[in-house]
Amino acid sequence: MESWLYISIGLVFFAVSFGALVIYTFLFGQRLQMAQRIEQVVGSPAPVPVRELELSVPLYQRAIRPALAGIARLLARIMPAAREVELQKKTVAAGSPGNLNAREWMVIKYLGALGVGFLIWSWAGLTSKSLPQAVFLSGVGILVGWLGPDLYLQARIKQRKTQVEKALPDALDLLTVSVEAGLGFDGALMKVAEKTRGVLADEFAIMLQECHMGKPRREALRDMADRVAVDDLSGFCGSIILADTLGISMGNVLRTQARQMRQKRRQRSEEMAMKAPIKMLFPMVLFIFPAIFVILLGPAVLQIMKAFAN
């Protein structure tokens, strides 16, 4: 029993330390990277020792990321190629959070399953659960730890798609105005990437960077459509590729696409408004109506009970 207590204390200390590290990286990581970039461009007044430079790197990049990469190289021997390709597509569609690849996410899945299962097994031992209960709860913990990264990636993918669908009509309006004002298509895309923020602006910037590195515009557009996996953006990229191939006026194509995207956004909003009453029905039936019935019928029920009691 005492060994279980020591193990639990150690696990709690590790979980608290890791949580504090994640919160610190989330709050101050971007600021530290910006300060480091400014020092690289402007120059520091005095040479910094190598030891301080190594310690200035966040712990995630200094220790955690190399450990994940090392385990991922060992896992590559047993990981099916089809599974890796599928997970890599999902990771790219999610925006590559943490700059992790498919193998590293698979390592996180294994570590999450083992970690959560072991924590629940330890908790079951401390609370004197029976062996079948401990095994069942540990199995549930392993399943949760295994599916947790997939659920996180799915949530990221859905969030990115929603942001792209909302930002695409406005971006196309700005793109149309820029092209009609005399800018080329690449210049108009650069203007949209500079004047807007979000997932779509980042994808436009990546596409332009690929074009500057020598990739043909058609391939860059197709790759962008495959990365984001949004039907509206795929249709836009297909129209631009077709217009570029057939020599159609880019302004007319962009104007038509902008009109269609605005109409789709309006239809999507109307669809959500039509679904709202149906979604409101369930909480009303489960929570609001019972309270109303208690308030309205409660006194009558009490009077009836008193009448029959007499």
UniProtKB/TrEMBL annotation:
InterPro entries: T2SS_GspF_dom
Topology term for the membrane: Multi-pass membrane protein
Transmembrane regions: 6-27, 107-124, 130-153, 281-305
Keywords: Cell membrane, Membrane, Transmembrane, Transmembrane helix
Keyword Cell membrane appears in the UniProt entry: yes
Domain Type II secretion system protein GspF: 172-297
Keyword Transmembrane helix: yes
Location relative to the cell: Cell membrane
Pfam families listed in its UniProt record: T2SSF
One cellular component (GO) term of this entry: plasma membrane
Record protein name field: Type II secretion system protein
Organism whose genome encodes this protein: Desulforamulus hydrothermalis Lam5 = DSM 18033
Lineage of producing organism: Bacteria, Bacillati, Bacillota, Clostridia, Eubacteriales
